[in-house]
Each structure stands twice: as structure tokens, then as C-alpha cells.
Amino acid sequence: MSILKNTIAIEIDDLLEFDFNINLKTLKKQKSYIFIKRFFLTFFIFMLGSILFSPITNSRDLTKLLNKKHIDKTVLTQQMIHETKKYIKTYAPDSKLSADIIVNMCLINRLDICFVLAQGHLESHFGTKGLAKQTNSVFNVGTYDNGVIICTYKTADASVEPYINLLKNHYIKNNINSLFKKYVNKNGYRYASSILYEKYMSTIYSRIVTTTNIQKLQTRYTIGI
Fold first, then answer.
1. Are 216 and 66 in contact (CB under 8 A)?
2. How would you class 158 by CB atoms within 10 Å of its CB: exposed for 0-12, middle for 13-18, buried for 19 or more?
3. What is the mean pLDDT of residues 172-188?
4. Per-residue pLDDT reduced to its tens digit, 56-102
5. DSSP annotation string for 50-96
6. Mean pLDDT computed over every residue of the chain
């Protein structure tokens, strides 16, 4: 322990031993210079990122953004994440589901973010209600009405990719809109037993589309402008 304390004391002494009269070439060799340089570089990058990617909260400014001829996709992505996070926290303040995961997985797999949000909302209030509280399965993948559970996840975020894969490989035929009429897989089996499931999905989906700008932002992102 004494050796460790002596080592730390020596390093602190080295860090504090500045000679401001030495030339720049010598200064660059000092550990303190490297430390300070890295600190200010990290701080600068952080501040620059905050300025460039701070979400737009004013509707007028957002309209101006959407009306631009050319928009950086990174800016659109950050704005979609902001709006998605806001929606999740509005209806499920205790949800541990990450908006970043939802948005990025949907963009990579070319899925409608509003659709995925609607189902996460309907199934478990984004992991805060029902069996999802113990399984972390936000979309109740691997969970059945009779109480049987065959899938659990370490985190709510970990349940997103399996759901996306299930949706793409077993449910989506031509386009996702057909699921609002009949939410069945390619073998004709329903996603949920409730006969009102499609109605509930459609209602929540419409609310997301009309009360957020997620769909508008994703449309601009998809057409690549």
C-alpha cells in the first residue's frame, strides 16, 4: 500500500511540476501537457457535438428543418431519437427501453419506427407492465397468454433485435400495413389472441403519427434528402 501511495504521490508531483519558462518543445514532453491537451480536446468534441446535434424542440424550427432541400442524416437520426424518447417517457416514465436502439434498428432494417413504437406500447407499455416486467421482453416475444414463458432477456434493449427479426422473417409479407388488417404470420398464426388487437394497434399508431414528427423525419431520412 505504501508503495502505491508513493507512486501516486510521485505521479502527482510530476503533474504539478510545471516550468512555464521552458520552451514548447520541452513542454510537450511533460505528462501534464498531454493530460491537459486530451482534456480540452475531449471537452471541445463534447461541446461541438452538443451544438451540432442538440434536438429541436420548437415546432417552427422543426418545420424549417424538414423544408430544407438537404439535411444531414445524422441530424435526422438524432431528432428521431429525441422524439422517440419523448414519446416513451410520456407514456412509460419508468421504461428502461432505449430510444437509440429502437430508431437505429428500424433504420437499419427499414422498418416503420411508429409501428414498432405502437406495438411496444400496446404489448407492455415499453416493458413496464405485465410479464415484461420480469422477462424484459418489451414485445412479449416468447410469452404466451397461458403464462408460458420461453424467452427472457437481460435488458429491455436486448429484446428489440429478436422482435425485429421475427417481424421481418415471419410476419411482413409485402408491406407492414397489411398487419393492421390481419396481424398473422406467414403460416396464418396470430401475433396475439385478442380479436381487437389490430384495432388497438391502429389507434396507437395513428396517435404516434399525428402527435409526433417521427414519421415525417423517417420519410426524409428514407428518401435520402
1. yes
2. middle
3. 91
4. 766 677 777 766 777 788 999 999 999 999 999 999 999 999 999 99
5. HHHHPPP--HHHHHHHHHSS---HHHHHHHHHHHHHHHHHHH-TT--
6. 82
pLDDT in tens, 71-80: 788 999 999 9
Rounded Cα gap, residues 203 and 205, in angstroms: 5
Question: Considering the entire predicted model, what is its pTM?
Answer: 0.74
Cβ count within 10 A of residue 215: 18
Pick the CATH number of 59-223 from 1.10.10.10, 3.40.50.2300, 1.10.530.10, 3.40.30.10: 1.10.530.10
CB neighbours of residue 7 within 10 Å: 10
Q: Which of 131, 115, 121 is nearest to 88 (CA)?
A: 121
Listed in order, the ranges of the chain carrying CATH 1.10.530.10 are: 59-223
Q: How many CA atoms lie within 13 A of 126 on its CB side?
A: 21
